[in-house]
Amino acid sequence: MTRTGGGAAxxxxxxxxxxxxxxxxxxxxxASNMNVAIxxxxxxxxxxxxxxxxxxxxxxxxxxxxxxxxSKLTDIWGRKRCFILGLAVYGxxxxxxxxxxxxxxxxIGYSLLEGIGSALLIPPIYILITVVFDDLKTRAKWxxxxxxAAGLGSAAGPLIGGLITSYISWRASFLLQxxxxxxxxxxxxxxxxxxxxxQRPRFDGVGAVLSAAGLFLVVYGILQTNTEGxxxxxxxxxxxxxxxxxxxxxLYVQTRERHGKAPLVSPSLFRNRTSNLGLLTQNVxxxxxxxxxxxxxxxxxxxxxxxxxxxxxxxxxxxxxxLLSSALAQRMASRHPQRLLIRAGFTVTVVGLVLLLALSxxxxxxxxxxxxxxxxxxxxxxxxxxxxxxxxxxxxxxxQGDISGVSRSVSNLGSSLGVxxxxxxxxxxxxxxxxxxxxxxVVVGAFAVVGWIAALLxxxxxxxxxxxxx
Length: 470
Fold this sequence. Notes:
Blueprint: H1 6-32, H2 38-44, H3 49-77, H4 79-99, H5 103-132, H6 136-167, H7 170-187, H8 205-223, H9 225-228, H10 233-258, H11 273-302, H12 308-314, H13 316-335, H14 338-359, H15 370-393, H16 400-431, H17 436-457
C-alpha cells in the first residue's frame, strides 16, 4: 500500500493511520480523564475515592488481561473486524457509564465494557500498521504517530476531562467518547485489511483464562491493601495465587507448543533480552505516568480543594511536556539510538519527580508544581515511542502480531499497577502517620529509577532477520 508514489501514498497512509491514532488517543484518554473527576464522581454516586480508584484500576487491568487474547482474535476474525467490534463494545460501555446511578453500573460500563472494547481495538492498530506499511522506516514513523497519540491521550485527559466535568458534567465526558468512537468507526470504513492467511490459528481458550486470571489476582491483591494493608494475609494470598496461576500459564503454553499446538502466546517471546528490557521500560513508563497523575490529582482535590478544571489546569505543564517531546520524537529517533532516548527520558522523569518533592508543599504557590510536572511529562513523552520501537524491532515480521499484543498488555498492566500501588501507598502511609502524598511520589520515583536501570541494560539494537518475501 505504501508503494504508490507522491500524494496518493500520503492520502492512503492518512486514511489508514488517522482512525487508528484517534482510537489509541481515546483509549488512553479514558484511562486518565477520570483522575480529575474523582471527587465529583464519588460525591455524585455516593461512594468514596477508593471506589473510583478501583474502577480506574479495573479498566486498565481488563485491557491488560485481555490484550493478548484480543491480539490472537485479530488473526482469526480479521484486524478490521476486531477493530470495529472493539469500537462498538467500547461505545456501548461509555454510554452505559454516562447513565450510571451507582458504582456498580459505572464499573460495568467503564471498567468492563470499555476495557473489553479497548482490548479488541488496540491490537489491530499496531498489527494493521505492521502489515500495511512494509517499509521499516515508514512503519517506524507511523508507530511513532500512534504512540504519540497514546501519550497525548493520557496527557490531555486531565485537562479535557476537567473542562467537561466543570462546565457540563462528568457524564458528558463519557458521551463525548461515544461520539468519537462513532466517528472513528465511520473513518475506519476506508481501511483496507490485507487478506488473512488461509490457515488461521485456533483460539487458545484455556491460555486466555489462565493469563487473565493470573493478572487479575495479582492486581486485585494489591488493590486490597487500601482496606487490608500490606501486612494482610489476604493480600499476599491473592498475589501469591495470581503468581501461581501465571506460572501454570507459562508451563501450559510451553507444553502446548511442544506438542505442536498454537499457544496463546509463544514462550519464545520472553527469551529476547532486548525485548524483555524494552517491555520492562514500557511497563514502568505507564506505571510512573498514571501513578503520579493519580497521586497529584487526589492531592489537589482532597487537600487543596481544587475543582476538576483547576486540577486539569494544574497538570497542564505535564501535558505540554508530553506534547513537546512527542512532537520531537521522530526527529530524535532518527538522530539518536532508541535506548539512549529511553535512558534520557527516565533521567528527566526522575529529575522532575525530585523537583516536585523539593518545591511543592501543601500550601506552596501554584508555580512550584510546574517545573517538576513539565520535566516528568517531557521525560515520559520522550521515551514512549522509543520503547515501542525497541520491542517491535527486536522481532521479525512474522512475530509482529504476537509481540504487539504482549507490548500493549504490558503497557496497560503498568497503568493498572500505577494506580493500584499509588492508591495503596496513600492509604497505608496515612494510617501510619506518614505524609501520604510525599511517600507515594517517592515510591513512584523509585519505580522510575528501576526503569532507568533497565534502560541502561538494553544492548545495542540489531536488525532482526526478515521473513522471506511471499
